Amino acid sequence: xxxxRSIVKFNALKYKKASRQQxxxxxxxxxxxxxxxxxxxxxxxxNTGKVRYTSEGIKLVGDPTVIYFHKRGRKKKYTRELIxxxxxxxxxxxxxxxxxxxx
Length: 103
Hints:
Blueprint: H1 2-17, H2 20-34, H3 38-47, E1 51-53, E2 59-61, H4 83-92, H5 98-101
């Protein structure tokens, strides 16, 4: 993944300065080499090096090599320590679904 991002970072300036026809050629080339989708690549290429400021005055620079994952979905209800006990309880209950296990 890091090599893909470094390839994108290397081609970002060339992509920004290119004409529309050259951009499609660059994009097609990058899709073949990185196996990423076109829309995702255009987003990475357009936002690389872009400078933004927050309301607190903090300077943010777009860098495709930095990866932050947003944890989506629900929060975990049970800790890792409880899971073996819950599995044992589930086996004793005959592998019933959660609807049937409710008290």
